[in-house]
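Researcher: Structure prediction, please.
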Amino acid sequence: MKKKIIIPLIMLIAVIGTLIFIQTNKDQDKATGHRQPAAENSVAENTEETENYHFIKEPTSITAINFLTDQGFLLEKTEGSWTVTDRREETDQAMVAEALQRLSLWEGDIVDVNRRDVGLDFPLITLKIMQGKEERKLAIGELNMTQTAYYVSDDQTNKIYLVSRDLVEQFPFYAEAFLDRSLLKDMDTIETVTIDNETEVIELTRNNPFSEAEALANVTGWFIKKPFNYPQFTSYSVTETFVQTLSSLSFEELVTIDKADETTGLLESTFTITFTSFDSEKVMVIGKPASQNTYYAMFKHDDQVFTLANEVVRVFSTPSKAFHDGFIKVIALDTLNELIITTEDSTHTLKVKTDGGGDDKTTVFTSHDEKLDSSIVREQYTALAGLQGTERSDVDVIGTNDISLTYKIRTETGEKEVEVVFSDYDEMYYAAFVDGINDFLIEKSQVDDVIEAMTDVITDNE
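Model: Predicted structure follows.
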């Protein structure tokens, strides 16, 4: 009977002793400020006893990378050339070399964590890398608590490392990054692009139709001819978007559908873009939508069908009005020798002379040999150059010569004259002619106000 009592008593004493020991440790933790790790969403990282570790020391020895992801692919080197297997597009060899160089920069410190706690028990991305006859697997897990590094495991060392977020995210993990999808790589510098978007024909060119001095005010380097009668300067923002699209023009995907298939709309389409370089020309045809985000397209005399992003098609659908800078005629003031303004009852002449050169260059404005205030001249000339067409027109013959501006420009070969005439069209508008060619109507009130202000500056000394 005594034994039955003693045994439970001993067990009770042991339990009480254990509880006292645990509570004592908790009290010590509170006294020292030590905190126990959270049960969830927290990983204790210990990197104090480790050295920086490089994963790939000789990237040139890599012969294959198998990307084990949701949309995995194999990048393989055969006879010195890289290929994304099972893709019809050409592989961008320079991009592969750059990616391998980025991979060689991966480095990290060993951390003492459990794989399941950092997303490495079932990683979303694993790289199976072949170097000669050796194979290694690098698995990418979650970001650390500070969101500055990824947990990466290496099966060759069977350890886990923290690798800088920038190093990991600068490496491409999708097949399209390694594919050469450029459409104009076999052409020299594009000189002219002619767009027939089924509404109008637009011709954009880098070939300067003017003297260098006359084109000095055109900041884009591109000019728009069609549908205008006279070559026009292009607007900066719209042309910049066009140039960027042109320089990076690429397809989204090569497709196996036949170009004659009605769903592509390619054989019936009249939406074409003609790219012309010094010695070659390519004509691209835009068809029907291939998806919510793409259109079918092809090059004439080629059976391969591909898709273009909506954004690309949208750029080539830009109307000519948006490409044009809107101004009747802009000539840089400092390129002038003279500006002659002729109205129905008077003529006024502004003479322009440049003295010195380089940093010491100055421009002097005179009328009847009297010097004018340069700041006022420039202010009013800016308004004159800023005259904008109100709407398109196509008048064959100059009617009444109500107001004319004669620009005498200094060119590399001598002097050139450009004449802008504002001719009566109706009660509200003038027809604007540049060297006898009309493209725009312009409000009379706009022209009259600017001409009056400019002539007032000149006549102050008359």
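Model: The longest helix spans residues 2-32.
Researcher: Thanks, that helps.
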